[in-house]
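Dear Dr. H.,

I hope your travels went smoothly. While you were away I took the liberty of generating a structure for the chain from your last submission, since the lab meeting agenda had it listed for discussion. I wanted you to have the full record in hand beforehand rather than looking at slides cold. The sequence, exactly as received, is reproduced here:
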Amino acid sequence: MTTYDHIQELRAELAASLDAGERQQIAAELEQAMVQHAAEKAVFDALFSAEPPR
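The corresponding predicted structure, in token form, is as follows:
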């Protein structure tokens, strides 16, 4: 599963959750996944914005 798909799954779980403790746990996992996704995107963007080798 990609990080993006994991984020979408967590968002759906968060929307469906009624228990406050479970919502807090899902929200924390969602935040961690979003940080991971941002890091992956930064690496990807750096690969394509770098100057080509000469």
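Two observations you may find useful: The two ends are 36 Å apart (CA to CA). Residues 3-48 form one domain.

With kind regards,
E. W.
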